[in-house]
Design a protein that fits this description.
heterotrimer, A alpha/beta, B mainly alpha, C mainly alpha, B: mainly alpha, MetI-like fold, 2 domains, globular, C: MetI-like fold, two-stranded antiparallel ribbon
Chain lengths: 444, 315, 312
């Protein structure tokens, strides 16, 4: 016990020493701290940033927080005017509040000076991650990581002849990646409770997490495709009849039925990491998750190397959309090292670095990377990523996004997981909550 | 009273010493000794409290620094007291409070009673039983989510082993019906030793002579238990209940880590809910009013608590 | 035949002993599981049925102290030969270490903030407790009640204005801010406990010292303090344990620089999902000191947890 403990301490010490020595010192070398979520892409960025450290002489430090705590902790940090982060890869929905409250530095002048053109990035990511107000050329971030909800499935299970035959007999079509939400549910039902290789497996793992943003990021994939809208397209902030339309209620009912019929037991508070665990350990045939996990799935000894396939969020009766994820990188206004932080963004925006970023498992939002003829075939999931990015839709990015999100979390979770009330009641309640938020904001 | 002792000393000592004892230096020293504590507590506790009361009458939001702050009178209070969701959190808190106290008193007293039989090695085992109580609720609570996992979790496995149920057939923190019990179980695991220790002190405070007298009167063991043991331990037990009551009324870290308030709102205790309003939705004014309501409730409990505490101390 | 009515019969003792030992073993199970999981490999940790016998590994501890990323295929080919043992360990999983994790920093933050706040709480608390015990302090009972009542406030409620105050003063996420806050919170405990310990010291010792020509301060310093040393030491350990375990303030008022271990440990995740061996390793390192202190403290435990209300 003690022996191992000492060893671990020694190991950590040696590592710390090694990192400290490797940084080259220069006259104005700064220690920059970059804040992001704790997930695979962030660790890849640590590796990628060594190039920046070598070239600039600045030293990079990282502060990664797991998703369920990420928004909570980092918005707390921004709202307290903290100096922990010089660079923030903040979630797309924070942009409104961070712009209006002066948490982020406006980047227009910097982009102009350095010749960084937003037209070079995927349009959906510019709107989603960089602009506030939306649709105006006011930039607060550089699109850093493109992400979108998609699905992963067990290609190896789907390919089994006996399952193929049974499925065809039952549903009259081939067992394949589903094309519609209805088909998705059928496939999930087909696998639910089935015994595969002596182990009981389940249909699909979906987002149900309550504390942060999980269930909202999941349920919107059904809501959008059944016809849910965030408001009257012609009259901003008019919600009645759009948020709680009959179609929207159908979408919510669909999500609940999927949760009730086809998810593993105990998956009542699951988000990205729980879904990954369930999938990798062979518990589920399909998982809903952000695209960031796909490089990890491919490399996994149990489910990688061709055993998994990928498909975009399937269409529903009311449209075909997928929930946007992803982040832009911003400079925090409270930082004393803004110049060095801007240097990092400048370095990061270079096409060569973006190319390396994609190779390391980061979803570059640079068009030069994703529109490269070799891109779609460079990885098994690359085409799915492109198809998904073409149909994205995002949650509110209003300054009051946190209140809007938490209201939705509790209304939707209470209906889907706790089974309280009806779908229509949940959405009516949501309209009431959101109206209240917008009234408080003076927007109604 | 200690000060009378000083006077006593002063009376019996020569004038020079008496002056040194009663002189200004004593009062100066007393002020010097007490002042830093009082100043610090005023700065960190009372000043913020007044600020909270002020904020509770406004619509201030920490995350909207550029917005005008309006005085809204009692509107925040009205909203809270009329909010059905907040009453639900109160209900969840009450359920948690009552059951943890009942279980901890029953198990804690039984353990103390058994330990008081003074079997060999009882000191060692007492120390071992006490361990969970001293550990960080956040760190331990987090680990319990692992123990509670269906199928792979130790808790489910042990329950499955003992009852024959399938360990993957139930999810302690995932099911609406079980989640409130999941936090009660962990809290009971952690804090039963607390009640046990206090009961043990109570049992040990009973002089043997009382039992011997009862034995002479040929009172049955059962009768001795109800007429001697229980009444003598009761003040201690009450003290333990009050401590647990106040602590669990404030309960935050363990529940945040275990269930985060879910599923649905089944374990959304008051503190967890308040944190959401204050530090996630950033409705600072509203949350301040919420906090003031909690202050008043706690203060009511606190005065009862200190009275009881003094009563026990007097014995 | 010698017979005592209060002494239990040996049969009763056996019965009581078996029940208590049984309870103790069950109650230790989660703690044992934390320590054991720290030495499991990831697949062993999430195996079904749970593994009681397993091949121990320090993988969890390596994960705890390092940040890792997936080894890219070209890097794997150009791997140097003499890699340190911990790098070899993670390479087996197709990973590579890219730097240290933040765990050791968070652990040291806990140490600094814990000891710093304990020091101030004890110094201030001892002084105040001595004054309350030996001098005529105006409104003594009210002040003592006020001091205790500060401990009853729900931390989340107190945190709202503290957050604003710290933001204004620039104390958010600083060691100084957390030490200040924990000192204030612990003061109630230290004043109440030490007050009780000093009350127990017969006043005659000081009287004798004063007659011998000591000043009041000398009497306090040279007579009372040594007598109260054990009590003060155990109070210090209680303060330390509180600061060590505190979560609510830490999670709201620190984000990185001064963040302590309790809000950090639950956020340890590996590549993909939660890395339970690493979490368990972190928890083990964090909980062990408290277990040792608890054993040291066992004589004063009751007094500490009841604010001195119950003395054994």
């Amino acid at each position: 016990m003690r022996h191992n403990f000492m060893k671990s301490v020694a190991a950590a010490g040696m590592l710390a020493g090694a990192v400290a020595v490797s940084s080259t010192s220069s006259a104005q070398a700064e220690d920059l701290t970059l804040c992001w979520a704790a997930w695979d892409p962030a660790n890849a960025l640590v590796e990628l940033s060594k190039d920046f450290e070598a070239k600039s002489g600045h030293k990079m430090k990282f502060e990664f927080v797991p998703w369920p705590n990420f928004a909570d902790r980092m918005l707390n940090e921004l709202n307290s005017g903290g100096k922990l982060c010089d660079l923030m890869i903040g979630d797309s929905q924070w942009i409104g509040g961070s712009a209006e409250n002066g948490h982020y530095v406006k980047l227009n002048d910097f982009f102009k000076k350095e010749g960084i053109d937003m037209a070079d990035f995927i349009p959906a990511t510019v709107t989603g991650y960089a602009e506030w107000p939306k649709g105006t050329p006011n930039y607060w971030a550089l699109p850093a990581f493109g992400d979108v909800v998609g699905w992963t499935y067990r290609k190896d299970w789907f390919a089994r002849p006996e399952l193929q035959a049974e499925f065809k007999q039952k549903y009259g079509r081939d067992l394949d990646a589903p094309k519609s939400l209805e088909e998705l549910k059928q496939v999930a039902e087909f696998f639910q409770g089935r015994e595969i290789d002596g182990k009981k497996v389940y249909g699909a793992s979906i987002y149900t997490e309550r504390g942060s943003e999980g269930i909202t990021m999941g349920v919107t994939n059904a809501l959008y495709n059944y016809g849910f809208q965030y408001g009257n397209p012609d009259k901003p902030y008019e919600l009645e009849g759009f948020v709680n339309s009959e179609q929207a209620a159908k979408g919510l009912e669909f999500y609940k039925s999927l949760y009730d019929c086809c998810t593993p037991p105990g998956s009542s508070d699951w988000y990205m990491s729980e879904n990954i665990d369930a999938y990798k350990s062979g518990q589920v045939a399909m998982q809903m998750n952000f695209a960031f996990i796909w490089p990890g799935v491919e490399a996994d000894p149990n489910v990688g190397g061709g055993k998994s396939g990928y498909f975009p969020n399937p269409a529903g009766p009311g449209g075909h959309f997928a929930q946007l994820g992803g982040q832009g990188i911003s400079v925090v206004a409270y930082s004393d090292k803004q110049d060095a932080a801007l240097e990092y963004i400048k370095w990061f925006a270079q096409p060569e670095v973006q190319q390396k970023w994609w190779k390391a498992g980061g979803y570059s939002a640079l068009r030069a990377v994703v529109e490269d003829p070799g891109f779609a075939t460079s990885q098994p999931y690359a085409q799915t990523f492109l198809d998904s990015m073409a149909i994205v839709k995002d949650f509110w990015a209003e300054p009051s996004y946190a209140s809007l999100l938490l209201a939705m979390q509790s209304r939707v979770h209470n209906y889907v997981v706790a089974g309280q009330g009806t779908a229509k009641e949940a959405l009516d309640g949501l309209v009431k909550d959101w109206d209240e938020v917008f009234e408080d904001e003076g927007k109604k | 009273m200690p000060d009378t002792a000083i006077e006593r000393a002063a009376r019996s000592t020569p004038p020079a010493v008496a002056n040194r004892l009663k002189g200004l230096s004593d009062r100066g020293l007393a002020m010097l000794f007490v002042a830093p504590t009082i100043v610090l507590l005023l700065a960190i506790n009372i000043f913020p409290l007044i600020w909270t009361i002020y904020l509770s009458f406004t619509n201030y939001r920490v995350n909207r620094p550029n917005r005008d702050v309006d005085f809204v009178g009692l509107r925040n209070y009205e909203r809270i007291l009329n909010d059905a969701d907040i009453w639900l959190t109160m209900q969840a808190t009450a359920h948690f409070l009552i059951w943890t106290i009942v279980l901890q008193v029953l198990i804690g007293f039984t353990l103390a009673y058994l330990i008081n039989k003074k079997f060999k090695g009882n000191d060692l085992w007492t120390t071992i039983i006490v361990l969970p109580m001293m550990l960080s609720p956040a760190v331990v609570g987090n680990f319990w989510t692992f123990l509670y996992q269906p199928q792979i979790g130790l808790f489910n496995y042990v329950v499955g082993f003992l009852t024959g149920a399938d360990p993957s057939s139930f999810s302690m923190i995932g099911e609406v019906s079980l989640a409130p019990w999941s936090i009660i179980i962990v809290d009971t695991w952690m804090w039963t030793p607390f009640v046990m220790l206090i009961c043990l002190a109570g049992l040990r405070s009973i002089p043997d002579s009382i039992y011997e007298a009862a034995e002479c009167d040929r009172a049955s063991k059962w009768r001795q238990f109800w007429t001697i043991t229980i009444p003598m331990v009761l003040p201690f037990l009450m003290l333990a209940v009050l401590f647990r009551g106040i602590e669990n009324f404030k309960m935050f870290d363990l529940v945040v880590q275990l269930t985060g308030g879910g599923p649905g709102s089944t374990t959304e205790l008051t503190s967890v809910n308040l944190k959401r309003e204050a530090f996630e939705k950033w409705r600072t004014g509203y949350a301040s009013a919420y906090a003031v309501i909690l202050f008043v409730t706690i203060f009511g409990l606190a005065s009862i608590y200190v009275k009881a505490l003094n009563k026990v101390k007097e014995r | 035949m010698s017979f005592s009515v209060t002494e239990a019969s040996s049969r009763q003792k056996w019965f009581a002993g078996i029940l208590v030992v049984g309870y103790a073993l069950i109650t230790m199970l989660p703690l044992f599981w934390i320590i054991a999981t720290g030495f499991k490999s990831s697949p062993d940790a999430i195996a079904y049925p749970p593994k009681i016998v397993f091949e121990p590994t320090v993988e969890g501890y390596v994960n705890l102290f390092t940040t890792q990323t997936r080894l890219s295929s070209d890097a794997a080919v150009s791997a140097p030969q003499d890699l340190p043992w911990y790098e070899n360990l993670v390479r087996k999983k197709g990973m590579t270490i890219v730097g240290p994790s933040r765990f050791s920093e968070r652990f040291f933050n806990s140490v600094i903030i814990g000891f710093g706040s304990t020091f101030f709480a004890i110094v201030l608390g001892t002084a105040a407790a001595y004054a309350f015990s030996r001098f005529k302090v105006p409104l003594k009972d009210d002040l003592l009640f006020f001091i205790l009542s500060t401990r009853m406030m729900p931390p989340i409620a107190v945190a709202i204005p503290i957050f604003l105050m710290f933001r204004y003063l620039g104390l958010n996420d600083t060691h100084a801010g957390m030490i200040l806050l924990y000192t204030a919170v612990n003061l109630s405990l230290s004043v109440w406990l030490i007050n009780g310990f000093i009350d127990e010291i017969p006043i005659e010792y000081e009287e004798a010292a004063l007659i011998d020509g000591y000043t009041r301060f000398q009497a306090f310093y040279k007579v009372v303090l040594p007598q109260a040393a054990t009590g003060i030491a155990s109070t210090a350990i209680f303060c330390l344990i509180f600061a060590w375990n505190e979560y609510a303030f830490a999670v709201l008022l620190t984000s990185g620089t001064a963040q302590t271990a309790p809000p950090f440990i639950p956020t340890i995740i590996g590549v993909g999902g939660q890395d339970w061996p690493a979490v368990a390793a972190g928890a083990t390192l964090f909980l062990l000191p408290v277990m040792v202190f608890t054993i040291l403290l066992r004589k004063h435990l009751l007094r500490g947890i009841t604010f001195g209300a119950v003395r054994k």
